[in-house]
Design brief:
Length: 757
């Protein structure tokens, strides 16, 4: 800071002998292609010419546009391209950087770009373009859709996100020119989204700069206070840091090891976050300063570590070997914290030059240092697996907001490292469970997981993994994902796979129910079965789909099962279409169906045994069990909802929506227990809940939930509300009979709010 405010005499003399350029001249220089030329020395002349053509096109497209700073707009694309040139990206990426706002701000179309610069450049620009032309309900939804598009384009071509991060970095550098009202939104977005993406892809230099700029604009007062504190600490500890540097350089010189030693200072945001998370004062943050040691080979890294540990004592528990086990974003380095002179902790990072390039530039190192790395290794290490997983998640998740939720889960690479039984290392986010591990291996393994072992011991599937765990997954061919898994899985991949399976399962069940309903409604009209789904009946089905507005036969049947359409209406239309083809009704079938049809409903009946899963719901207002009289209501988009016959909610619905009711009956052999609610009034006393629960357990009724009065201690009697699962009404009455005979029980009754209870 002082160097900027008080330039040296030499600099003052140089400044005095030279007239500063006028603002117009400075703008013209920044807006010219010359501002970029000196960074393109790594390119072939033909590639430079292509970049120049993109510059001319962008300059013409943005002609007359001015940034908030007053500079010509073209200065922004040039700055973005210059950052991409720092990463040594290819000509197509730099062309996309120059053109990245052309579609959004200048009315240029994607076909225009394809014609002028080719499809690859147009695809890159399109991946960077926000979806302003589409209408969304909220800004958040618009933002989510923009990120979904950008991330998917990034998964197909990682250059998209490199250009996007360069764009965001320059916008943050010039944020002071924007209205202050926009600082919070833009800085929060940068801190929550773009900085984590940069970190996830190993772009550590960009990651630190974005965090620092966002912190300065989001918390300007705290940033200023910390800046002063760090400046004071820097001046106080300058002698100490210089002493450490001299001693370390001398030790490496005595060992004959060539090294590059550089000081490293913690960013203000890192200091602030450490103080905030660990509730520390500034004086308690001891590792603000550190050193980076760059050595020729991997073996030298470990030798250098030994030299450092001989010079200063290491702090126990503060050594990390990220060379043997790289971070999930490809970062490799040895970290150790040593107790330096005067008891001050100093952190050292030891790495090779290729590791340093990857540490600073992440995925961009594919271009910067690809000669020293096998493509297969770099691709796996530099986040390609994560990029590919974005496409996998998109395959199951079409909703933009849901997709973004999944991706955000994976953006913070605070990882645990576990092993497969064959000693392969797997990196997963901290908090990941056995189910996450199973899905990270393969979605089929995750879907069929039934049990797991960690370090040879059987564990629940929700068990969180720890560093070094050896995980073995047990699968079964007939197994399927459990909805409860969504409550504890940590990775976006696992969450999207489970949701996709559950949606597919619900769709299948609702389609089967819809087919059953339409068949029954058609029988009531005198036709035995649905027309076959074959070429002979394709025209008939097409006409029916046009009538209903459905896209496919499966969609129509699923909508019937979900109650979005009424089976009797569709059946009547189908009868007309069958009649046009010469089909004739069966009078005997009509008579039989109408004679047996439920007198209070307008559609055919359905047999229920509890195996219907998502397509049938049992209403919470009356909680019917086998043996109760029941009716079925086809809710709009809810599938079939089953109510007790005397439920007041069902009666109100029947009065308003009679055509949506269908006849339902219990199967003779239900395949599972059904829940209902009991109110048990007891004499207050010690152990009474245990006695009541024990009595219920003795009747084989399963208690799934219990509630008690909050102020029961102040009264002689208390009300206990149980939700119990029973086989049928007979089983329920037996359980109530046993409860009434239990000591301390005053009264037992079944609670059915739908009847006013």
């Amino acid at each position: 800071m002082s160097a900027v405010l008080n330039p040296s005499p030499g600099k003052r003399r140089a400044a005095a002998g030279k007239t500063p350029p006028s603002p117009a001249a400075a703008n013209a220089a920044a807006a010219s292609f010359a501002a970029l030329t000196n960074k393109l020395d790594y390119m072939e002349p033909g590639d430079i010419e292509h970049v120049r053509q993109a510059y001319r096109f962008a300059d013409e497209a943005h002609l007359g546009q001015i940034r908030a700073s007053g500079e010509p707009y073209i200065t922004h694309p040039i700055a973005v391209a210059a950052q991409c040139a720092e990463w040594k990206l290819d000509a197509q990426a730099l062309m996309a950087a120059l053109l990245h706002d052309a579609i959004e701000d200048c009315g240029v179309t994607k076909p225009d770009l394809i014609k002028r610069f080719g499809a690859p450049v147009a695809e890159l620009v399109d991946g960077l373009t926000k979806l302003d032309r589409l209408q969304f309900d909220t800004r958040e939804e618009n933002q989510a859709e923009s990120f979904r598009k950008m991330l998917l384009a990034m998964a197909r071509d990682v250059r998209v996100i490199l250009v996007k991060l360069a764009d965001r970095t320059h916008n943050m550098r010039t944020l002071d020119d924007m209205p202050r009202a926009k600082w919070t939104r833009i800085s929060s977005e940068t801190l929550e989204i773009y900085a984590p993406i940069a970190h996830r892809l190993g772009l550590n230099q960009t990651y630190r700069e974005l965090q620092e700029l966002a912190f300065r604009h989001l918390r300007p007062w705290r940033h200023g206070v910390l800046l002063k504190a760090v400046s004071k600490a820097r001046s106080r500890r300058r002698d100490l840091i210089q002493k450490v540097q001299r001693e370390v350089e001398k030790s490496f010189g005595n060992a004959g090891m060539p090294t590059t030693l550089a000081g490293r200072e913690k960013t203000l945001y890192s200091v602030y976050r450490k103080m905030d998370e660990k509730h520390l004062s500034f004086a308690q943050v001891t590792d603000i300063y550190g050193f980076r040691v760059i050595v020729p080979t991997v073996t030298d890294c470990y030798t250098a570590l030994g030299i450092l540990h001989q010079l200063y004592k290491p702090v126990p528990g503060r050594f990390k070997d990220h060379i043997a086990i790289p971070k999930v974003n490809g970062y490799q380095s040895l970290h150790t914290t040593l107790v330096g002179p005067s008891g001050v902790n100093v952190e050292f990072q030891v790495r090779t030059e290729p590791m340093h390039v990857v540490a600073e530039s992440g995925v961009a190192a594919h271009w910067l240092y690809k000669a020293n790395t096998k493509d297969g290794e770099s691709g796996d290490r530099l986040g390609t697996k994560w990029l590919q997983s974005l496409l996998d998640i998109q395959h199951e998740t079409r909703d933009a907001a849901e997709f973004w939720d999944h991706v955000k889960i994976d953006l913070f690479p605070d990882a645990v490292y576990v092993f497969t039984p064959r000693s392969q290392i797997m990196a997963l986010p901290r908090g990941a469970t056995v189910v996450d591990f199973a899905y990270s291996i393969h979605s089929d393994i995750g879907d069929r997981t039934v049990a797991a072992k960690i370090n040879g011991e059987q564990v629940p599937l929700r068990t969180e993994l720890k560093n070094g765990d050896v995980v073995e997954v047990v699968t079964a061919p007939a197994s399927a994902p459990n909805p409860a898994w969504l409550g504890f899985v940590r990775t976006g991949r696992a969450r999207s796979k489970i949701r996709h399976h559950l949606k597919s399962m619900a769709h299948t069940e609702s389609r089967d129910l819809g087919e059953k309903l339409l068949t029954q409604a058609l029988r009531a009209e005198g036709f035995e079965r649905l027309p076959a789904d074959d070429a002979d009946h394709q025209v008939l089905w097409d006409k029916l789909l046009r009538f209903t507005g459905s896209r496919t036969r499966d969609e129509l049947l699923s909508d019937l099962g979900l109650g979005k359409r009424i089976a009797t209406i569709v059946a009547k239309r189908l009868v007309t279409l069958l009649g046009d083809r010469g089909g004739k009704r069966d009078a005997l079938l009509i008579t039989r169906e109408r004679f047996t049809a439920h007198e209070n409903v307008s559609q055919g009946g359905v047999m229920l045994d509890g195996s219907e899963n998502a397509s049938v719901q049992y209403a919470n207002c009356c909680r019917p069990v086998p043996g109760d009289g029941i009716v079925g209501y086809l809710g709009r988009g809810e599938g079939l909802v089953v109510h007790a016959e005397d439920c007041s909610v069902a009666r109100r619905l029947q009065h308003k929506d009679a055509e949506r009711f269908i006849g339902v009956e219990w199967s003779d052999e239900p395949v599972r227990p059904f829940e209902t609610q009991l109110l048990v009034r007891v004499i207050n006393g010690k152990g009474v809940l245990a006695r009541v629960a024990s009595a219920l357990a003795g009747t084989e009724a399963d208690i799934t939930h219990v509630d008690m009065d909050d102020d029961r201690a102040a009264h002689d009697a208390a009300d206990l509300r149980f939700i119990v699962a029973v086989r049928d009404r007979t089983h329920l009455e037996n359980a109530m009979r046993v409860l009434r005979r239990t000591p301390a029980v005053m009264h037992v009754r079944r609670l059915r709010p739908g009847r006013g209870d």
